[in-house]
Write a structure and sequence with these properties.
The protein is α/β, with parallel strands linked by helices. It has a single domain, classed as Rossmann fold, CATH 3.40.50. 23% of the residues lie in helices and 34% in strands. The protein is built from three helices and nine strands; from the N terminus they run βαβαβββαββββ. Strands 4-3-2-5-6-7 form a six-stranded mixed beta sheet, with helices on both faces. A three-stranded antiparallel beta sheet has the order 1-9-8. A hairpin with an 8-residue loop joins β3 and β4. Bound molecules: 1-O-pyrophosphono-5-O-phosphono-alpha-D-ribofuranose.
Length: 176
């Protein structure tokens, strides 16, 4: 089987959307929010978004959580494993939680619950890609970069079996 990547969202499209997305987010998170990126997928998204927020005067503290869902199949068992937890104090902070894809919703729901339980003063969520067709629980992000159909996408931090994260564009993985 050969793999091919069909272009879907170019690096230019992403850069333009992140400029407007940062403008949408900035008024809601205060001047010195805590930004928590769910790794590894949101690494590239976070790197670009924090600079766009910086241009708008936001001076964030940055932290990360490494989460993974595992089970019998790729559509997730609903069990989220915390591989690395964030270390910043969450209590009374204005928190922006970032993920690359909102798919079943289980990862973002789990991380949101964790941060609320730790006493975040406000919690907003932003995802680069939303695949609403795949949802298993009621979960919406406050801010969405692009809403996409149920395609298997890679690039811009998003992997297939740990590959393709380095690609500047987002594309659909075709296996032929
Ligand atoms: C992916 C993605 C999101 C999550 C979304 O992470 O980065 O964090 O799945 O899926 P969900 O809405 O169904 O929970 P993955 O576990 O593949 O790890 P990665 O971020 O290291 O690629």
């Amino acid at each position: 089987m050969t793999e091919r990547i069909q272009p879907l969202i170019t690096a230019t499209d992403i850069a333009q959307r992140l400029q407007t997305l940062a403008g949408e987010i900035a008024p809601h998170i205060g001047a010195t929010p805590l930004i928590v990126a769910i790794l590894k997928g949101s690494l590239v998204f976070c790197a670009d978004l924090i600079r766009q927020l910086g241009y708008r005067g936001v001076r964030p503290t940055l932290d990360v959580m490494v989460l993974s869902s595992y089970g019998c199949d790729t559509s997730s068992s609903g069990h989220i494993q915390v591989q690395l937890d964030c270390r910043e104090e969450i209590k009374d902070r204005q928190v922006l939680l970032l993920d690359d894809i909102l798919d079943s919703g289980l990862t973002l729901h789990f991380a949101s619950q964790q941060l609320r339980q730790r006493g975040a003063a406000t919690l907003h969520t932003a995802v680069l890609l939303d695949k609403p067709e795949r949802r298993k629980i009621a979960m919406q992000a406050d801010f969405v970069g692009f809403t996409i159909p149920n395609l298997f996408v890679v690039g811009y931090g998003i992997d297939y079996a740990e590959r393709y994260r380095e690609l500047p564009d987002i594309g659909q993985l075709m296996q032929e």
